[in-house]
């Protein structure tokens, strides 16, 4: 840092203290050439995070929007608000590690799903549905089957909650129905779908 008085580049630090609520470090310095005293601040560089959408357009990463989607998927499940916020923080930390600070919307969705999968099958299926993971009823049924076998392997009972109609978001059901192709429609629909 050049001295503001004489432009000499070497100074000594007289005092360092935390400033701006811990967001920066304030340093009082003294020029070794002319003894001028001046103050510098050190901050973490903020690089905005961007999401690359499927159409290639970029938008800024909106953590509150992501959290809203997660909160909606987790309604009436045992996923706590702390766990929901932790998913968003983990994702933010993950993106901050990247040199480009960019993530595709597909990666973002998969990342959330990876976390929800072990927390709640209900939240997983809802989020997957709203986020457009299911291309057809076949994808949907296959996912349910996978979750069921994972759940049985773990010996927990969350899968049963999937069959309670109250646990379903209408968005999940509408999205699954709208992608039904007549040729793919199985003769017997799973019991979790409305009649
Ligand atoms: Zn100086």
* Beta-strand residue percentage: 15-25%
Total count of strands = 6
Strand order of the largest sheet: 1-2-3
Distance between the termini: 72 Å
Shape by Cα distribution: elongated
Order of helices and strands: EEEEEHHEHHHHH
Name the poorly predicted regions.
164-195
Bound molecules: zinc ion
- Mean pLDDT across every amino acid position: 80
Q: How would you name the oligomeric state of the polypeptide chains in this document?
A: single chain
Structural class: alpha+beta
Mind describing the biggest β-sheet? 3 strands, antiparallel
Tally of alpha and pi helices: 7
Helix content: 40-55%
Q: What's the Cα radius of gyration?
A: 26 Å
Description:
The protein is an alpha+beta fold and 195 residues long. Among the domains are: 11-43; 48-140, no CATH class. The chain is 43% helix and 17% strand. It is built from seven helices and six strands; from the N terminus they run βββββααβααααα. It has helices spanning 63-73, 81-96, 105-119, 121-130, 137-154, 158-162, 170-178, and strands at residues 11-19, 24-31, 37-43, 50-52, 58-60, 102-104. The strands form two sheets. Strands 1-2-3 form a three-stranded antiparallel sheet, with no helix packed on it. A three-stranded mixed sheet has the order 5-4-6. α1 (63-73) runs antiparallel to α2 and α1 (63-73) packs across α4. It is elongated. It starts with 10 loop residues before the first strand and ends in a 17-residue tail after the last helix. The structure holds zinc ion.
């Amino acid at each position: 840092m050049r001295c503001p008085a004489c432009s000499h580049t070497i100074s000594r630090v007289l005092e360092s203290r935390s400033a701006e609520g811990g967001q920066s470090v304030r340093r009082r310095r003294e020029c070794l050439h002319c003894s001028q005293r001046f103050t510098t601040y050190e901050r973490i560089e903020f690089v905005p995070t961007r999401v690359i959408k499927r159409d290639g357009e970029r938008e800024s990463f909106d953590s509150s929007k992501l959290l809203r989607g997660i909160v909606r998927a987790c309604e009436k499940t045992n996923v706590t608000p702390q766990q929901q916020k932790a998913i968003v923080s983990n994702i933010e930390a993950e993106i901050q590690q990247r040199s480009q600070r960019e993530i595709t919307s597909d990666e973002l969705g998969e990342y959330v799903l990876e976390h929800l999968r072990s927390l709640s099958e209900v939240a997983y299926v809802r989020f997957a549905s709203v986020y457009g993971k299911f291309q057809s009823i076949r994808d949907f049924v296959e996912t349910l089957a996978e979750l069921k076998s994972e759940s049985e392997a773990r010996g927990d009972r969350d899968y049963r909650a999937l069959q309670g109609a109250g646990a379903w978001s209408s968005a999940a059901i509408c999205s699954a129905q709208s992608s039904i192709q007549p040729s793919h429609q199985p003769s017997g629909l799973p019991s979790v779908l409305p009649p």
